[in-house]
Amino acid sequence: MDREPNQRLAALMAEARATNKGLARRVRDAAQRHGVRLGTTHVSVQRWLDGAGIQAETASYVAEALGAKLGRRITTSDLGFAGLTMRPAPLGASYATSLADALGVLDGLTQLRPEEKVSASDLLHDNEVDSAVLSWLVSRPDGLPTSGAGAPRRVGMRDVAAVRTANAMFMRLDFLFGGGHGHAALRHYFRQEVLPLLNAGYSEKVGQALFTAASEMGEVLAWTAYDVGNHHLANRYLLASLRLTQATDDRMMGATILANMSHQANYLGEVPRAARLARAAVEGGRGRATPRAQAMFAAHEARALASAHDLVGASRAMNEAERHFERADSATDPDWLAYFDEAELIGEFSHCFRDLERPADALRFAELAVEKTEPQYARTLAFCRMVLAQSQYLHGEVEAAITTATTAVREGESVQSARFRHYVSEFQRKISPHAANAAVRDFNDHVRLAFADPADE
Questions:
Q1: Which of 187, 361, 375, 440 is 20 to 30 A off residue 249, Cα-Cα?
Q2: How many Å apart are CA 181 and CA 223, to the nearest integer?
Q3: Cα end-to-end distance, the chain, whole Å
């Protein structure tokens, strides 16, 4: 039976000005970003044009390749491959090949709710992360889009100031009440207010400031998703925001995003990945980041190495962080970095010594972190109190540990943070051998009441 030529694929290739060989190469590259090796050649493309069948997974890579070239979303049906049963590649699972693609990913992500849980298999794989990091490290700024030059709306510095003000407000909410409190509103704001600005018209100066502010807000979006426990959303927000920093050559924010990816990987127990990402942040920000930012990057490397029980490496990284922080006041930092103060650095060190199982040092630094952390950083204070409790327990002070943990739960009751609940549950696991102790039973009852769903009351 004669096959019908695939006119839809031919039309899209013509629009994209893609040759058979060119498309074959792009399809192989798209598959490679997902950790898949394909043997697609110009002969394969010609067979599809002649009406031959195609594997569902391969079709998704063809759609991704042509979509990146055309700057819009392409489906397998658009390609003339109808009736395929397939599971599309997860949204934002690779480093966007173009700025338009990154904006499309962000538009799609902001339509997803963090309570829509996904399986661990939907998290980014090592090859996807490593490919993205390498792409960013070797990238050159690709400039801002010019398609909005004739747009009816012109963006000005007042618009940028509004975005920065909103971002500062959402950051404050995040520190005070946890990511669960502001994520939904921030997601709506980014989609309804920020994305339209990015697609409008602006001067080069305004565009640079606008995209910088957008990447900063994208980082907060990622952080709030991380804090509520949706790691699928968080790492994709981080990846898309990393791509935005390439457009403006904002190496310090890009390196900060890599450090945040390291923080998340460490939290999830992906210790080798956490160490690689932290080192990438150190190298990516070298010569472009302020001393305060460099201290933060080194502290994240120390956290990862401490989780790996590498005392020598973690000590080196902590000393490096301390040396950088001593020069923190020698440069002007962006407002979003103000949270990384002395108390934050000390808190990071307390985590390191806890994970290295050095009770005396962990206790000393945790006590100092609790003492120095300001009330406006309520979630951080709750974390520090829990690390203090864990350190007291490691030091053999069971009763003191339970008292400290009880204070942390009472004071942090309004913090909507899956991470804080994880700290508490980990502490409960550690003290479980003392289940017969009345203080332990009282603490477990207190936790149950504090974290009870209001709908169940």
A1: 187
A2: 12
A3: 68
